[in-house]
Structure formats: structure tokens, C-alpha cells
What we know:
- The chain is α/β, with parallel strands linked by helices and 779 residues long.
- 44% of the residues lie in helices and 12% in strands.
- Helix 7 runs parallel beside helix 12 and helix 15 packs across helix 16.
Amino acid sequence: MNRENLTNSIDRAAKSIRTTWPLYSFVTSNPLAGYETMSFLEAVIKSKGLSGGDLLPGPAILQKALNEGEIDKKILSRLLTASGIGHSAEDTLELMAEDEKYSYNENAVLDRIVSKWLTAFMDEGIAEWEMPFKAEGFYKAWRKLAVYDSETGLPKNIKMPKSALEAIAHALADYPEEEYQEIMEYHFAALPGWAGYIKFRIENNSPWQNHYPVSLEDYLAVRLWTAIGTGATIKPPKKDMATIKAMYKIRYIWLQAWENSWQDRLINKLAPKNNAPNTKKALAVAQMVFCIDTRSEVIRRHIESTGNYETYGYAGFFGIAMDYMNPTTGITSKSCPPILNSSYTAKEVPAKNGINDFLKYQNNKKRNLFKKYFLKRMKNLLPSAFGFVEASGLAYGALLLFKSLFRGANTKTNNNGNLLEKCCTPSLLPTASQAYNNISLEEKTIIVKTAFDLMGWKEFSPLVLFVGHGSHSSNNPFASSLDCGACAASPGRHNARMLAELANLPEVRKNLKEIYSITVPDNTLFIAGEHNTTTDEITLFDASLPTEHSKQLLKLKDDLKTAQRTAIAERLGKGERSNNRALRKARDWSETRPEWGLAKNAGFIIGPRLLTKHINLESQCFLHSYNWESDPDATALEAIMQGPMVVTQWINNHYYFATVDNEKFGGGSKISHNITGTFGVVQGNAGDLKSGLPLQSVNSSDSEIYHKPLRLSVIIQTPLKSVKKVLEKNENLKTLINNEWISLLVMDPTKENRIVKYKEGNIVTNSEAVNHNYTFQSA
């Protein structure tokens, strides 16, 4: 057998695997990212054939959308007719109802056995007793131990190959080489969560990977030999692909009709504002930059209604591709989108007058860490476990009863303008450096200038806020999924503080003025803050700032509290107790839905705030500020499309697939979650590592969806030629759009804000768009 051909087959098959990020750094991504070079329809059909599951909205979801008017029946009928389907909408629903949701899992026993071994090997701190021989790697450790596991079906005298690659070659010896890739994709798709986490450990140079290596070759070798021992299926069984394709064609037309209907409603909302005169108003009292996150849309509207305030949207990592080092643990984690390589590391440096507070902060952290360590040891060590449980059981029982009867009364949210922000300032240094060597003045200036350019900023108020966001919930393994998706599930506070620190530097402002003709007034003060998306509280990190703006800051803080109250009332219902409800959701240990995260996301609007101001977008749209007039060469537009647009597509598809089939692509119900290895959850006590959102994040009940499974629709206000220029330079973006992972609409301000729609083909009106073979179409 040709070793190179085998390796190439593994590499090609591995492209179908999406990365599974750990719970502590949860990243929303497209479960079918490996298939983005195919059209969306081809990708879902291929995945359906490999591993079953539902990848398009089912008949119950579609029927409900039709009944509630979310799908325009005229658009649906036109699309069905144009595709040569002679059935009515009602008839096609009946046909879809006959389609099976799941294929029979012929390898359920194999999945369980392999998952058991992966759980034991990849543990990262929960197990007190390690699996033997871990340092030799997964396959080699398994090879020494598997014969003692009767479930593998392997005889004790069996001689297994010494290397994983040899083991795979032996297992596939009876199959032609042209079938290797399909077989490997089939076995990767069987346990995508575990395969994806192996990929994460390899790609992110995990410390656990350095000590206990595991590879995709190891995974395949263990799985294929276990398949041989148990008599499981190695080659994917043949499926009736003709029936799958026919049924998916109908369901896909329904999805297109739903998306076209949603786009029409959004366009109608924007239409009255399209040609609104941009009247000159007095300079805002304060300008506030929020993440493009859909949850920011609500709080931005309510802040603007309290006074003369301007709000902007910018990707939540604030343009700084950095990692963040925790000052106490020394652990460095990513604080920017995973598609970016981190150029910098941010470290906390004690302020001149904050040394004592910094020492206090460190001592508090160390005490908390020791407390957790002590309790874990007492519970897990054999000499103390029984005595500890006996002695502490009554206290734990009383605490549990108190937390159940008085939910949320005994804890505080972590939306803290806490001691760390009061005593430290962040310092940025090159990632490769281990010393406190600040980056160059030129780099600092470029970071700030880029932020101003991407938002089309021309004037600066006396107060400018960079507001990152984080969430808070109790007893929630998926807590980081509610933090900033643009910051690799890290709160955006670190990046916001870093940008504010750089923008306040006199030498940076001097460079901006002398080199780039950007004048920041002397009285402009940049302040970082954090928006708690569970409670809508905004905390400003202003403890060490000069006092000249004290009066303005007090007024601003009062208005932010007013905006918090009204925003919560919109989200949770009016009444004096709405604030208390939000706090309880954050603190309640039994709350399954502390907040909705980015559920209902469906659109991404790139343009000035004028387009969407005073419009209630119902938290369905990401909003990125952009001024086409200040971007004649489309440089800023290219950066937005290459970065935030791609990331929002990941987020959108993550929610989409978790909704259409939560068991396969989501996290399943929180009720039966069990944490494994500190990094993930499984349903019950075994099975695949869950890599998607829990059922409670996308459904309002076990059977009723809350998130609407629609692909991302992007609307950009800019001349059509600018978008064409960007797409001509970036084949990856063109591929995403041509393959219908993103629907792109352009509002051309040079053509009376006429909206045209991009795919492949001709230019027609959106209502006339009856198939998916068109280029720019009037919408």
C-alpha cells in the first residue's frame, strides 16, 4: 500500500472536520465548514448521506412559518413552479412529512466504545487516576490496553501494528484506494465532536497535546481496529441518494422562500430611511462603540433615546488581534476571532498608584483558586472522600435548598468594574516576546487609525466609549457561548480597555494628526466599558481617569441606567420588576435560559447608523458601522467582508444547524449534560462530545423553536463597483457567496440606494428571482 496515498487521503478527509472548541473558549462555527467549497445544497445532501440527521428545516417548522406569515406564499409558489415542481405548497408539506429524520445508526456500539477510550485519554483534569501510557500517544496507549477491554472484541494474543498509519493500512487492505477518503469521512462524521476536538488540540498547540499527543491518524486507527473486533461497518452503507436529493430539493425551495420573504420585510423597514437627508446635528455628548453582536442592537436604540448620543458598531475584538494573559494564573487565552493569528499579547501592568490594590487582587484570586483545589481534593481523595461527604453533606444540602427557594439571592454577577481594572492598565507586546517590550508607536497608531477608518469616523465627542460585552450565568457549562463570539468567547472588555489605552496616548494622537490628518480634540477622553448582555448593565472602567469629565460622566451613567431599564423591559416585559427578573436569570443556578445569546440572527447590515436608527430590528441583525464616502478604494470594506462578515456567517450557521437538528449538530438538552475532561459535555454518561449550542439556546420548549433557521443575509451600503472590486480580489468570499452560504445584497447610494442582490447570473428584481442562478439582482 502506498504510504503517501494513505496520508493524502487522511488529509483530504480531515478537511470535512470542523473544529470543536472547548467549553472555556467556546467558538461558534459552521458545522459543515469543510464543505464550503460546495454549494449549500450539495453540502447538506452529502452530510445527510454520510451521517444522517436533518440539515434543512423540517415540515413542522416550515408549516408554522407559513401559518404565521413568515413565508410569503406567493414567493413560495413562484419558486416551486420555476423549479418544475407541479405540487402545491400543501402537497409538498405532506411529501416532506414522509421523509425520515434519522438514518439508522449501524455503528452505535462502535461509537460508544471509541467515545469511552477518547474520554479516558483526553481527560484534562477531572479524573484522579490517569489512563496508563498516555505520554506515548493515543494509539500506542490504546494498543497496550485494548486487549484487556472485552468490549473491543480483540483477542489478547493479537499483534497490532506499532504505528497508527500501519494500523489504518492494515484495516483498509481489502478496500480499493479510491474509497479511502469516503471511508475516512464516514468515520470522522460518526463522532464529529471528538474528531473536532482532536483537531483543536493539534491546531492550537494545546499544552495537553504536548504532553499527551493524539492525532487524527490515532483516532482512525483505534476506530477501524475496534470496528474489526466488534464486526462493525467500515465502509459507509449505500443510501437512496436519489430520494434524499428529491426531498431536499423541495425543502431547500421552502428555505429560499422563507429567506426571500425575510429579506423583503427587512428592505421594507429600511426603505423609508434610504433617502432620508443626513441633516447636520450638534456634536453628540458621547459616542459609544459596541460590538456588532445582535444583542447590542437593543441597548443601542435605548441609549440613543435617552439623549444626544451616537452609537457605532465594530467587531467586538476592536481590531486588536491579541491573546490575553491572566495576571494571576498566567494562562494565556485567545481574545480575537479564531480566523486571525494573534499578533500581540496583552498583559496587566500595575498602575503607579495601584500596587497595593494589585497585590490584593492577586491574593483574592489565589485564595479562590486554592479553595477550589482544596474542595476538589477533599471530594476525590480516598482517605478523605467519605468523611468529607458525611461532614459537609448537611451544609451542602442546606445551601442547595436555599439556592432553590431563593434563586439568585446569594450570588453576585461578574459584570465587574472590579479591582483589576482599578489597579492595572493593559500593556500590548508582540506575541513572540516574553518581555515587557511595548509594540512600536507606529503599530499603536495603526491599530487606532484602523478602528476609526472602518467605522468612517470624522468627529469626536468629549467622551468616547469602547464597550465590550460579556454575559453572566450560574451553573452553565456553555457560559462562554454567551460571551463575545468575535473574541473567541472571551469577554470583549480586555480588547476595549486596550484600544482605549492606546487612543488616549498623546504620542498616538500626535501621529494620527501629523501622518494621517486625523485630529482628536484635546478634550476627548476614551473610556472602556463592558455591557452585560444578561442584565443590560454597562460598567465603565473609569476609576483612574482624570476628573475634568466627572460631571459629564455622572449624567452619562444615569442615562445608561435608564437605557438598561427600558431595554430589559423590551426583552423581558414591562413592569418595575423586570430588572429583578434579569438579575435573577443571571444568578439563578437552575436557569436554563439566562439569555438568548445571538438567537434569531439572520442579517448583517454594513453601513452608517442613519440606515437603521429608530428601526426596531428585533435583535435579528449584526450592525457594523461603515461610511462608503470615506473609503474610496474599498480597503475598509474589504477588511469588514474578510473578517466580521465571515465570522457572522460562522455564527449564523452554528445557530442554523443547532436548530434544524439539535441532537446531531447542537448540544442536546442541558438537563442531561455531563461535563467531561473540563473541556466539553456529553449527553448522559457517554457518546460524542457535544460541539453545538444546547437545545435551550435555540428552542423555547422541547418542540418549539425560538431561533429561525435562516442563512445570513448581508446588506452593504456602498457603490456596487466597490463590492465587485473586493470580490474580484478575494476568491474565498466569492466562493462563500456563489455557494449560497451567504446571501449578499448591495444598497448603492450612487443609484438612489437601489438594492441589488448578488449570486450568479443576471440582474432582476428580488420578487422575480425564481432560482439561485443570478448575479446582482434588484431586491
